[in-house]
Amino acid sequence: MTGSEATPSFRLAYVPGVTPTKWVRIWNERLPDIPLTLVAVSTAEAFGVLRGGDADAGFVRLPVDAADLSAIPLYTETTVVVVPKDHAITAVEEVSAEDLADEIVLHPLDDTLDWERPPGQPAFERPATTADAVELVAAGIGLLVVPQSLARLHHRKDLTYRPVTGTPESRVALSWPEERTTDLVEDFIGIVRGRTVNSSRGRAQTPAKTKAEPKGKRPDASGARRKPAAGKPAAKNQRTGSGAAKGGSKGGGAKRGKPRGR
Fold first, then answer.
1. Matching InterPro entries, A to Z (predicted)?
2. Are 220 and 226 in contact (CB under 8 A)?
3. What is the pLDDT of residue 131?
4. Do residues 150 and 79 lie in contact, with contact meaning Cβ atoms separated by under 8 Å?
5. What pTM was computed for the model?
6. What would the 3-class secondary structure string for 146-183 be?
């Protein structure tokens, strides 16, 4: 891992449909001195932005070219079909790909789903963008199958959507250039993975050491220092009975040995 102390800010790219608000808020709380700059990119240009150094990391849609980009899969989206509110499909909770067989299904050029063959009947031509396809759905030209986040992003009052089974699903991931895994990238990875600020993988400072207790004055389990029990002498090495304490003045204490004869 290489350091990046000179980086004035952290640049985070994100593709349409991804809402990075939660992670940006946590970043601002933990690293208030390092501004985070959001970079909105299309799905097609996201990897070029990362490789070109125009963003430090980004929320992208899988698959990712693993040769030079690292990625952490985050979640899988529900696939939905966008329809006019008066369409017959609105009468059910969900549909299958086979249910769309007789419908015209729009397939925009920026489609994010990895189809072997899109469902339904193809339109006369492909719309340039998902936003254009949504306009065509509103005009009654056809239907559109997209990840749920894109259906929400392009929400219109005259349109709604239903989940579709038997179709590809879009997976969102955090990606960054492997050779530029900086300290700031590691910090953001920790946030996305839900690590706390004191996590072992974080860069929190080591807590200050507490002052050592003086010998002979160790606290008990409650934290309080022990006091001598009532009625017992506190002096150290004190003898019981009539003998004097060890180390008394010369001649002041009785000598040990046999008693003298009288």
1. LysR_subst-bd
2. yes
3. 96
4. no
5. 0.72
6. EEHHHHHHCCCCCEEEEEEECCCCCEEEEEEEHHHCEH
- Chain centroid, CA 174 distance in Å: 10
The pairing of strands 69-76 and 171-177 is antiparallel
Residue 6: per-residue pLDDT:
55
Model confidence pLDDT, tens digit, residues 182-194: 999 999 999 999 9
Structure letter (DSSP) for residue 228: P
How much is the pLDDT for 66?
74
At 210, list the tokens.
């507490």
User: Within 13 Å and on the Cβ side, how many CA atoms surround 147?
Assistant: 22
- List phi, psi (to 5°) of 205: -70, 150
C-alpha span between 141 and 213 (Å, rounded): 81
Quote the CA–CA distance of 99 and 120 in Å, as a whole number. 8
Q: State the residue for tokens 């966008």.
A: 82
Distance (Å) of CA 201 to CA 40, 74, 151, 159, 195: 29, 19, 37, 45, 8
Cα 92 versus chain centre, distance = 36
CB 60 within 8 A of CB 12: no
Q: In the chain, where does DSSP find H-type helix?
A: 21-30, 46-51, 130-138, 148-153, 183-192
CB contact at 8 A, 185 and 12:
no
| 235 strand-pairing partners | none
- Nearest-Å Rg of the Cα atoms of the chain is 37
